[in-house]
Amino acid sequence: MVATYKDIRRLTGLSLATISKYYNGGNVLEPNRELIEKAAADLDYQLNNVARGLRSRRSMTVGVILDELDSAFNTTIVSRMEERLREAGYGTIICDSRKDAEAQADVMRFLVGKMVDGIIVVPVDDDASFLVPARDRGVPVVAVDRLVPGTDSVIIDNRAAIASAVQLLTTAGHTSIGLLAGPDSTYTMRERRAGFRDAVQDRTGLLPRTELIEPEHVSIEGGCAGVRRLLRLSAPPTAVVCANYGFTLGATIALNELGPESRPALVGFDNMDLARLIRPRPTLVAQPIEDLAIEAAELLLQRLNGDGPDEPVTITLDTTLMIGHESTYQLRPVPSNGRL
Amino acid sequence: MVATYKDIRRLTGLSLATISKYYNGGNVLEPNRELIEKAAADLDYQLNNVARGLRSRRSMTVGVILDELDSAFNTTIVSRMEERLREAGYGTIICDSRKDAEAQADVMRFLVGKMVDGIIVVPVDDDASFLVPARDRGVPVVAVDRLVPGTDSVIIDNRAAIASAVQLLTTAGHTSIGLLAGPDSTYTMRERRAGFRDAVQDRTGLLPRTELIEPEHVSIEGGCAGVRRLLRLSAPPTAVVCANYGFTLGATIALNELGPESRPALVGFDNMDLARLIRPRPTLVAQPIEDLAIEAAELLLQRLNGDGPDEPVTITLDTTLMIGHESTYQLRPVPSNGRL
DNA sequence: CTGTTAGCGCGTTCAG
DNA sequence: CTGAACGCGCTAACAG
Lengths: 340, 340
Description:
Shape of chain A: elongated
Number of domains of chain A: 3
Distance between the termini of chain A: 76 Å
Helix content of chain A: 40-55%
Oligomer: homodimer
Largest sheet of chain A: 6 strands, parallel
Strand content of chain A: 15-25%
Radius of gyration of chain A: 26 Å
CATH superfamily of the largest domain in chain A: Response regulator
CATH topology of the largest domain in chain A: Rossmann fold
CATH architecture of the largest domain in chain A: 3-Layer(aba) Sandwich
Strand order of the largest sheet of chain A: 2-1-3-4-5-11
Largest interface: A-B, 52 and 53 residues
CATH class of the largest domain in chain A: Alpha Beta
Number of helices of chain A: 13
Low-confidence stretches of chain A: 333-340
Number of strands of chain A: 12
């Protein structure tokens, strides 16, 4: 049987109130303090945070809803959040929505029923109706990697991210650039695609040929298939930009099967470990994933302490272009059109 | 304010007991049932699992302690466990021990204080003393990927795993094989190293030269450094076996910098995604990571339902040797010594 | 500073 | 089948 205040009372003769005060930082006479500490040690006593939360209405746990668990992106997100949250005394309940809106709504109800004090979520799509249960109960929500109107959000500057990739390529002389991007239903994909269009138009003065934008299922397979499809075009692009990590993996796999001569330039997205594994060393748009997680956790903690901003805020972080081996972004042979 | 039974009572005129019964599968008269359902819908009522757990002494949450969060192995582990556990109604609190025994002990106390019903853990080392708080409170623990005496464990057959790699290499004619393995303090490393020794002796009739066993810091860097050190030996091995995923990555990186002629054969460990990214396609000892997670979750659920075996059990799963491009495991040039 | 008395939201006896 | 009463472990008023 696990020990409770009553057991400590039995051993010390003190009242429950005194014991409670001891555990809540109140002033307790030195001899009593010692009595309690001894009894607690003897009983191997452990505070019951559940009962405690019943009164204080704080479970000291937060829910984290990810759209998938086994991706490098979300792995880093979880890791950093858990670190920061537990530091602040919070437990982290993770839930995988598996990119399914219904599952996401289920999970939200599940977490609300678990009385979590706050929720961090990477939403599956733009439909924010799943947030209702949290709103109703005043549970603060922070969205990550998606802009959710009316809700605290921590995102990256997706348009600038893609623009930096396009700029690198156009500077290297590319004028025909393909993009591998997912459906517009996802915020990041929509933004990156728009960023691509704008940047290409901006840099080359032309609208990108629509064939160069390949809407694909967001996955490694999609990246493989997409790059192959791009290269089968009558006028294939000389460079390809990948709008996320899965596409980058897939495109790399597909390109590995090509000879170096016919290989287009490639700018990938995300994961930095990749840079060390693949030859030629890839050029990547690196997201500040850890900062994304830390900022989100910090923002939620502020809300939980009641000292956040009055209005919902949006925190936007910048990406970094990691230049790889030059063969990954330069034309080869290099028919420099004078831009470089 | 969030609704409680009392609010439902107010709207229905029923007693708390009846409402409780409704939510716990008891028989309630049809009209009353409808009353409750209507009131619950109006109030947007949500059962308070915390209060509920106070009495039932079940928090319906389990703790999962990993030695690191951002590794492909643990990512898969978490993903599958969360899936299975939530299916069974349990929330999953994840904690990262960061391969630190003290942090692990902290986390254990944290979880016990959170009244988790059970714990799944990938322990950092062989010291099982951190389990005491759980034992004291009768919280069932399942260890994953480590054999913990007296505790339910789900592991792979590490010796056989390495033996399969060695067998492949010796069959291909290799007699001088290096191993990249971590310190003996980790169960898996100890087992894989022992498996290596046994297998080499078994197959070649010789004890492996000790220089060929490189104890390294378990990391990508260790893999890089280890393989370079092996190749600098006066008589470098013609093949290298990696005892984990990090080493495999590191070794691959290091080998990428070598010309194909001087490149030793390589058998890696773990992650299957890797196989698709790297050229030449690597040969890998693939662990059934998902099964590891599922079996562990299943075992814990049994314990939570009180219908598990009387004694602690050990579940051992088998690995699969994934043959990559033949250049990754065959001698080149092939001085077949008649074994093949 | 300490003890007493009420609950927190819900589950579980018991009567009825 | 339903209702009243009590208790889960702890915190928050208030008195002393």
